[in-house]
Amino acid sequence: VGRWIMELVGFPVEGSLCLLLSGGSAANLNALTAACHHAAERDGWNLRAEGLQSGRQRLVLYASEESHSSVQKCVEQLGIGTNNLREIQADAGFRMRPDALRQAIERDLKAGHLPFAIVACGGATNTGAIDPLDEIADIAAEFGIWLHVDGAFGAWAALDPSYAGEFKALARADSVTLNPHKWLQVPLDCGALLTQHPELHRAAFSLTPDYLVSGHSEAPWPCEYMFQLTYGNRALKVWAAIARLGRKGVAELVTRCNGLAKLLEARVRAMPDFEMLAPASLSVVNFRYRPAGRSLDGAAIDALNVRISNAVSESGESHLPTTRVHGKTSLRACFLHYENDESDVEHLVRLVSRLGSSLADQLESA
Amino acid sequence: VGRWIMELVGFPVEGSLCLLLSGGSAANLNALTAACHHAAERDGWNLRAEGLQSGRQRLVLYASEESHSSVQKCVEQLGIGTNNLREIQADAGFRMRPDALRQAIERDLKAGHLPFAIVACGGATNTGAIDPLDEIADIAAEFGIWLHVDGAFGAWAALDPSYAGEFKALARADSVTLNPHKWLQVPLDCGALLTQHPELHRAAFSLTPDYLVSGHSEAPWPCEYMFQLTYGNRALKVWAAIARLGRKGVAELVTRCNGLAKLLEARVRAMPDFEMLAPASLSVVNFRYRPAGRSLDGAAIDALNVRISNAVSESGESHLPTTRVHGKTSLRACFLHYENDESDVEHLVRLVSRLGSSLADQLESA
């Protein structure tokens, strides 16, 4: 199953390993643990023994300001500290700026710090934005820094011809997070970590007490490569999903969902009372209801869209959570379900329009 | 379900929280994360922001040399470093020595370090030994150190009248690990963390990005109290197990299993070719085959018992892994299954005796 996942997204198979963990957070943590242990080892010290309490060089991590909250959680869990997480500025398209990344690394090297990993977004959660992976991989290679791509939701889109080019550099990543429990519809929990350095994960995690020595076989034993010891069978359900869909089926699924996002974007742009807040990327669309010709200020429009989101949930017809984009409250649509089709887009536009109009009336008369 | 678990083992319910995590390792990690964040906060600094890289006081953890390997993994994952894990000597019964614990704490305080937690075993994996929880709780209270009890497998035995006294001090622990996926027969994965300080776990973990703000209710949201964000439903299967068994059923299950261990101990002591390597504690029995009147040295007896363990597995009739006890290879029996009864004990004794005799013949003639 690991081989299948790697083949689907174009990750090098030879010498690589796929671990099935409890989710994207665990996959990110696993990768970053291996990365910082490796950086310490190259610097001549043993992180497992010394920890971060020996006054060594300061380990520093780089991630886009648009990266997933789990990256910050990883930095905290590892004892790195958020003061040592460099949140790299994103461009107008919410993509990490390579020039800003380079500057941050150079600044840290000058200060005597130890950059240990770059986390690039292969589909940011908030906007679906894909960081410029190839340019970032160049920088990682130049400075010898571990490149981890958080493609928890998005990296399956390597199979969509519209996005294949942007994901080609997945093959240059040291490790990639990719969740079968998202786009692949596999039941929770299931997060995949693809790594080109199984031996470095083993070096960071392997610990075999006396009562576990017997009974192991030649195949890699997952608990030697991860934090957790006992784990449920996650491979079977992933196997079933991929065996059922095949490469063609997965490709059709992600391509269709991404197409629905483009369709929704076009419909939103055509509606006078709707506003796009970010370019549609992958299957994510950030938009809001902003009725023309009404006397509503920014705060009122924010409040209106929160009410619309709640009303959509209460209707039971869709789920349309809010988020913040450029400081504005946004409705965030994300197409992941295998049954999503064009009628859902039409339905959503009508639903938001109807609820928005009625809630705006209430808000204005209040 | 959390309330039920706490009530069953005598953990204070009022103001406490039960989290269902992916296993014992995750539960231990969660508790120790909260403990070290709390210690840092009391010391006047913010561990989430600073990490362990600011040259502050050195955080130090105490655990029995018999503690589970996951404790070391936690120390590594948190960036504490195994150099700052004090492995406290155990007594002849494999129980942490309170005098040695006190000495270690005093030594660290004198050196200016910051003790942040004591991990006591509520049933060591290797031998089933229960640390003297009450005496350890006294020391934790005296020095103001977080007491975590790792009762992943054993703490259910608070319901066995033979062990209830030893587990009474669970009520004095700041946090307890207790796995429904072990004795309670709940399918993987499921590890419970009981804590008297939900607010400290929230302070260590809560992080709510914009795209997750909406939709939460008044009930505690588990991802604000733990590392993981998305999680499967673990409560239903635990509910089903406890609802089916009831307090009486769980008590009967653990009491019976512990009784089988005592029975096996008695049978082993009565067999001339068998040797006990540790006192039976909870449902764990460490013993080995040591044929009388044969010319086998220590290494040969070790090798013989590894072969016996493998032969038992191959027979398909039982699972009897090896471990090491006092430097000797041991066969380790552990009764956890609801169908285990006295006939299993008799069968195991006969099986080991027969395989041991035949393998000893082979070994001697080789």
Explain what this protein looks like in three dimensions.
The structure is a homodimer of 366-residue chains. The first copy, chain A, has helices spanning 2-9, 24-42, 47-50, 69-77, 98-110, 133-143, 164-167, 198-205, 235-270, 298-315, 342-365, and strands at residues 17-21, 59-64, 85-88, 114-121, 146-150, 175-178, 191-195, 274-276, 284-289, 322-325, 328-334. Chain A has 366 residues and is of the alpha/beta class. In chain A, the strands form 2 sheets. A 7-stranded mixed beta sheet of chain A has the order 1-7-6-5-4-2-3, with helices on both faces. A 4-stranded antiparallel beta sheet of chain A has the order 8-9-11-10. In chain A, strand 5 (146-150), helix 7 (164-167) and strand 6 form a beta-alpha-beta unit. The model of chain A has no long low-confidence stretch (mean pLDDT 94). At the A-B interface, helix 2, helix 3, helix 4, helix 10 and strand 10 of A face helix 2, helix 3, helix 4, helix 10 and strand 10 of B.
Entry summary:
With 366 residues, chain A is an alpha/beta fold. Chain A contains eleven helices and eleven strands. Chain A has a seven-stranded mixed β-sheet with strand order 1-7-6-5-4-2-3, sandwiched between helices. Chain A has a four-stranded antiparallel β-sheet with strand order 8-9-11-10.
Please give the order of strands in the largest beta sheet of chain A.
1-7-6-5-4-2-3
Q: Which CATH architecture of the largest domain in chain A is right?
A: 3-Layer(aba) Sandwich
**Which protein chains are joined by the largest interface, and how many residues does each one contribute?**
A-B, 66 and 66 residues
H/E order of the elements of chain A? HEHHEHEHEHEHEEHHEEHEEH
Largest sheet of chain A: 7 strands, mixed
Distance between the termini of chain A: 57 Å
Low-confidence stretches of chain A: none
Q: What percentage of residues of chain A falls in helices of 4 or more residues?
A: 40-55%
| Percentage of β-strand residues of chain A | 15-25%
Instruction: State the helix count of chain A.
Output: 11
The pLDDT mean of chain A sits at 94
